[in-house]
Amino acid sequence: MIRILGHAALILLLTLLTQTGGIAWAAALFFRRRLMVFAIGYTALWAAAYSLSPRTPLPCFGAPLRLQSALYCALNRHYVTPELASVAADAARQMAASHPGTITLALDGSFPFLNGMPMIPHLSHDDGEKLDLAFYYTDAQGAYLPGKTRSPLGYFAFEMMPPEACPQNMLTLRWNLGWLQPLLPDRPLDGQRTAALIRHLAADARVGKVFVEPPLAASLGLSDPKIRFQGCRAARHDDHIHFQL
Ligand SMILES: [Zn+2]
Question: Fewer CB within 10 Å, N or C, the chain?
Answer without folding.
Answer: N
